[in-house]
Amino acid sequence: MKKLLWGFCFMILSAATLVSQQKIAIDKAIQDAQKRIERELGVNTRIIVFNFSAPTETLSEYVLEQLTNNLINGKKLIVIERKDLNLIRKEMDYQYSGDVSDEEMQAMGKQYGAQSIVSGRFDAVLYGFSIKVINVQTAVVEASYHSEIKKDAKLDLLLGLTEKDKQEEEQRKAEESKRKAEEDRRKEAERRQRDLERRQFAAPRDTAFILGVRGGLTFMFNELNDGYAKNFEKAETSHLGGELSFYFGSNSRKTLLGFQMEGNLVFNNGMSLTGSSSSDDLKFSYMSLDVPLLLRMGIGGISLFAGPYISIPLTPLTIGDNSSEKDYDIEKTINFMSSYGILGGITIGIQVGPGHIVLDGRYMYDFNEICILNDRALFRRHGLNLTIGYEFWL
Fold this sequence. Notes:
This protein is α+β, with helices and mostly antiparallel strands and 394 residues long. It is built from 8 helices and 19 strands. The protein has 2 domains: 22-161, Rossmann fold (3-Layer(aba) Sandwich); 207-393, Porin (Beta Barrel), CATH 2.40.160.20. An 8-stranded antiparallel beta barrel has the order 6-9-10-11-12-15-16-19. Strand 1 (46-53), helix 3 and strand 2 form a beta-alpha-beta unit. Helix 2 (26-40) packs across helix 3. It starts with a helix and ends with a strand.
């Protein structure tokens, strides 16, 4: 039962609120203001309906005249007649479009024996109609009324609006709405740009990841061990081999610096030796996996790089003469590599399709000699690698 009662009360309040928010005609507003004043003030209270500030004198005089007549005809209050009021307003140099302060109204009310004084105003922007009643002795607001006025032909006439005025007003409002919409769009675009800049600043896409493959030739100028070289009349240190490389890395677009790690399969490492007779000629050969870790610096399409590497033997060292070949195990350093060294070079990239064709030239140098298991040091590698390949920047 209580729930039903509360629901009923809520519906009544909602309906009352909805009604109070509806716009009404000017005459209805004047009538409602009269009833509110009569309800709040005591019977036979002496009042003056003094001023109503409005955009036009026609509207101001109309509200004052109608409200005064309604209060007189209501016969509950004593209303100062219009002729006396006109004298008072003339004496105060009253302007229809101006507001009068509460202090001025109190002073004037006391002078003419009024107990309360009525004033109001019309808001030309929101079409708001307001009335208040001030007690002359205490300055307390005894009654107040407010409503929104409906636009109709009578109100237009009182405001002095012609059809041209209304068209100009509608055009002004349309232009104002368009200007506001453009301003909102501009602010939204600026907000999006700021958000984009913040995201780019918080998580800049500066680093590019690199994946590539290369293949080409190795031109080696290996050095024969002095102790071994005395057994031969000539050592052909130049030696042609091959290389296939897979690599990945990263490069900063701002600092132009990055790292690159490679896995290079080097074929036909070795050299040729010439003895006192053709039967004494020898050839050394083996295959290795060289693993460099390089510092890379990019300048446009050109990258310079340098860094250390280790060389892991993948096959035994084959020593052969004109009639036979024999394999020897290569002595390893730190259990898995046969040598280590440093290399440096240059890469030129040309964008083709989604990636770059790269031309790579580098020089490598082993820090130690290649040895077989009986501790004989044979030779030291160094030479040029020339390769061509393709790489992606992700």
